[in-house]
Amino acid sequence: MERPLTQHITFPPLEIRQYEAIGGYQAVRKAVRHMQPQEVTALVKESNMKGRGGAGFSTGMKWSFVPMDVPGPKYLVANADEMEPGTFKDRWLLEGNPHQLLEGMIVAAYAIQATEAFVFLRWAYKDAAIAVRKAIAEAYDAGYLGKDILGTGYSLEMHLHTGVGRYMCGEETALLNSLEGKRATPRAKPPFPQVSGLFGKPTIVNNVETLSFIPHIVNKGADWFKSLSRTADGGTKIYGVSGRVNKPGAWELPMGITMRELMEDYAGGMKNGFGFRGVLPGGASTDFLIEKHMDITLDFAGVAAAGSRLGTGTMVVLDDQTCPVGFVHNLEHFFAQESCGFCTPCREGLPWTEKLLWAIEQGRGRNEDLELLLRHTEWLGPGNTFCALAPGAMEPLQSALKYFRDDFERHIREHRCPYHDPVPAAPASAHLHHTHHL
């Protein structure tokens, strides 16, 4: 089994001469010396590479939307903010092989003829910041960045930008606002960033895992990339599992393995004394899947057919000794805190949802609260908010109400959380609960 993304991960990471010794920066040499920018884009499009940040959109198609005949600067941004709860795959790549990311960024920037590139890094990734900063300096010294790269006339400047820890920056236009020094709120679309992005110029934002794959596609071709996968979605994927399993972690595996293989063969199954209730397959903003879904393929189509999303491919497991109501309340508390407050349904709806869940968790819930929660999953669903934050927040809630409704009803019927004894104390915010039942 080939593991192109992770085979050269080391801690500390390879220095540039070591990276070159294993074939590093050959994709840059090949692209800027022997390929036209449009050829690079066509190759990535042919590979059927889909973005690994969560949306699963065709990477080559995204690049092809950049107008190549527009004068002035263009930008490339690596989204390394990785704020999705339960997700840690990009951190592994950033800390373990930063030159692989930089090489992918240089090739991608060349394909769209960007003149400036940014790594937008999560504030908490201190070790990654050190690794990326050092790699950028080494790449400048070796002539892979700066003016007249490898004597080809192509020039690219690259910067490390550390964010301030806002989940909202996972939305690419909010990220661009933040990069411009503004409040991280999403922009109206169209125009899309490929046409009018950073500082109003054409901009591509790609995920770290996505960009790290680019050198391998340029070196080995589209057919090789497709051959790595078990399904129509090409390549390998970094999958992760967290929760009460025997071996939580992350693994690079063929795209399209089954959830059962990931859970049992790699994560080692559930810990002794704990049973499986469900899983968020792609981070916190995806719908729960349950036992009957164990044999689905973990690719974009397979997870969608089961009613959820592949997302980041990093699973969060719910065990049978963790309260589903408390589990979902914790997620909605996070999403309510991370709402940018720009649109009313998200700003008002998420805190209301969180308070309803907290009241149920405390044993103060009412039967009609379940109907209210269901209505929120519609009011805050796709098409009713300015961006995807609130719809994403509704995914674990709507699926928990579907698969774990008995738990919600038991909380209400018994006026307590059956998973906790004694009942937890109420936060000050919970006293507002009944004021919202208007």
From TrEMBL:
<keyword id="KW-0411">Iron-sulfur</keyword>
<keyword id="KW-0560">Oxidoreductase</keyword>
<dbReference type="InterPro" id="IPR019575">
    <property type="entry name" value="Nuop51_4Fe4S-bd"/>
</dbReference>
<keyword id="KW-0408">Iron</keyword>
<comment type="function">
    <text>NDH-1 shuttles electrons from NADH, via FMN and iron-sulfur (Fe-S) centers, to quinones in the respiratory chain.</text>
</comment>
<protein>
    <recommendedName>
        <fullName>NADH-quinone oxidoreductase subunit F</fullName>
        <ecNumber>7.1.1.-</ecNumber>
    </recommendedName>
</protein>
<dbReference type="InterPro" id="IPR001949">
    <property type="entry name" value="NADH-UbQ_OxRdtase_51kDa_CS"/>
</dbReference>
<comment type="similarity">
    <text>Belongs to the complex I 51 kDa subunit family.</text>
</comment>
<feature type="domain" description="NADH-ubiquinone oxidoreductase 51kDa subunit iron-sulphur binding">
    <location>
        <begin position="325"/>
        <end position="370"/>
    </location>
</feature>
<dbReference type="GO" id="GO:0050136">
    <property type="term" value="F:NADH dehydrogenase (quinone) (non-electrogenic) activity"/>
</dbReference>
<dbReference type="InterPro" id="IPR037225">
    <property type="entry name" value="Nuo51_FMN-bd_sf"/>
</dbReference>
<keyword id="KW-0520">NAD</keyword>
<dbReference type="InterPro" id="IPR011538">
    <property type="entry name" value="Nuo51_FMN-bd"/>
</dbReference>
<keyword id="KW-0004">4Fe-4S</keyword>
<dbReference type="InterPro" id="IPR011537">
    <property type="entry name" value="NADH-UbQ_OxRdtase_suF"/>
</dbReference>
<dbReference type="InterPro" id="IPR037207">
    <property type="entry name" value="Nuop51_4Fe4S-bd_sf"/>
</dbReference>
<keyword id="KW-0288">FMN</keyword>
<keyword id="KW-1278">Translocase</keyword>
<dbReference type="InterPro" id="IPR054765">
    <property type="entry name" value="SLBB_dom"/>
</dbReference>
<dbReference type="Pfam" id="PF22461">
    <property type="entry name" value="SLBB_2"/>
</dbReference>
<keyword id="KW-0874">Quinone</keyword>
<dbReference type="Pfam" id="PF01512">
    <property type="entry name" value="Complex1_51K"/>
</dbReference>
<dbReference type="Pfam" id="PF10589">
    <property type="entry name" value="NADH_4Fe-4S"/>
</dbReference>
<keyword id="KW-0285">Flavoprotein</keyword>
<keyword id="KW-0479">Metal-binding</keyword>
